[in-house]
Design a protein that fits this description.
Length: 204
């Protein structure tokens, strides 16, 4: 054979819930009673919808302030980028780089990578299939780090609540950023990585 066999070549289908290999003619998994599908239903359209929604929310997440700091009567509102700049100017370059990576680099990387995977899968491209599969696993691995900016705001708000001296309050920007993180995580979860290898069948 010119390729390794697919499960369907042996009349098998994998349960998406418990990962049991089941007979292809079965409609439900005998172990967990979940519906059986050779591939996640409507995986591409669902992933596109979640990715586009995340891209839309990413605009207010970066343009709206994420927190308001009040200290000794003065008030300041910071977006994600202005917060990075403030940390950098204040000498906390390590925190600035960490937030910049988690809040700017990681989401943009996920947008690009998921878009690339979706386009190549829809085109049934055989280009760099092993590398694209590794890229998907990498996206899953770094996905949770995008929540770091939300955690930073939450920790700062908890630690700097000296009511008589200063207060830190979260603003709508952090809500939109949280939605971006959740939507990109859901997009990665809804993507069907086995579609990458389905191009082998078309290429036979």
């Amino acid at each position: 054979m010119s390729r390794l066999p697919f499960a369907r070549d042996h009349a098998l289908v994998l349960c998406h819930t418990c990962a049991k290999a089941c007979a292809a003619e079965a409609e439900r998994c005998p172990r967990c009673d979940s519906p059986l599908h050779a591939r996640k239903p409507q995986a591409l359209s669902r992933t596109w919808a979640l990715l586009i929604a995340a891209l839309i929310f990413y605009i207010p997440a970066n343009t709206l302030p994420v927190m308001r700091t009040q200290m000794f009567g003065s008030s300041a509102e910071n977006t994600i980028m202005s917060g990075v700049i403030e940390f950098w100017k204040g000498g906390s370059w390590d925190i600035a780089l960490l937030i910049f990576f988690a809040s700017i680099v990681v989401p943009c990387l996920k947008f690009f990578a998921l878009g690339l995977l979706l386009v190549t899968c829809q085109a049934r491209s055989t280009w760099a299939m092993p590398q694209r599969a590794k890229l998907f696993r990498f996206i899953e691995l770094i996905g949770y780090w995008s929540m770091l900016d939300v955690l930073v705001v939450a920790l700062v708000a908890a630690l700097v609540q000296f009511r008589s001296l200063s207060t830190v309050d979260p603003l709508p920007g952090i809500l939109f950023f949280g939605l971006v993180v959740v939507l990109t995580m859901l997009a990665a979860m809804s993507f069907e990585p086995r579609l990458i290898w389905d191009a082998e069948v078309a290429d036979d």
